[in-house]
Known about the structure:
Blueprint: H1 3-25, H2 29-33, H3 37-62, H4 72-94, H5 100-110, H6 113-116, H7 129-164, H8 169-172, H9 177-210, H10 218-240, H11 245-272
Amino acid sequence: MLNLIFYPIAAAMYAGLAAYFWRMHWLPAAVTTGPRAESRTIEPLLVLMPISLHAMLLYQSVFADAGMHLGIGNAISAIVWLTVVIYWLGNIVYKVEGLQAMVMPVAAICVLLPIVFPAPRALPNTEFLAFKAHLIIALLAYSFFTIASLHVLLMALLERRLHGGTLPFGLQTLPPLLTMEALLFRIIGAGFLLLTLTLLSGIVFSEELFGKAMRFNHKTVFGILSWIIFAALLAGRWRYGWRGRVAVRWTLAGFLMLVLAYVGSKFVLEVILGRT
Length: 276
């Protein structure tokens, strides 16, 4: 199949960009020449190439036949693609170059997942508008929280090195910690809004299809737990000024609940149990 040739090409593009961003923004040699202005101009164009190829591969894989094929491979690949796109657009404004060296290796691996874990069959009920809206909003929510998790890990590394008195060259080009923290809570706020809409649209879809509210299962439980964790984090930030390690722990805990809610359940059902 011709399409199979393009998956390793997309992965190689992402891997090449990961090496490029690591060399330009993290290696000691970069501090002598500095990330040149022309390199910053061309970097968004370089990222546009693999995400465009990734998008075409995803479209062909998800809509291979009638219906939507959104197994664990396509789902994770779509979430990571959206993560790269959202970060690519946001980085044009905020210039957080350090995250690019973290995002690209993940994308290089996840772009291959649709051929490693192909969707066994099309999703049922995709003719319902409420279900389509639910899927799109859910994927966007996962993408925002994936960015937030990577962002908070970078913040934790930056804070630790600041206390240690030395900074790697890649961290020296980042915005101040308070600026990164403000950006983190903007990302979490957007993700929380999308997660809220995901839960609400799930209720609408369930009522439209089954005539009753959302079914109470492990996916629902972990989704609600994630919503509670992020709601508590945002409330704590607003009321008590939570930041630093508290923000790191709560962000990662909420993201873990999301992973268990969707990706974890699909992995157990499709890969371990062989069900859909």
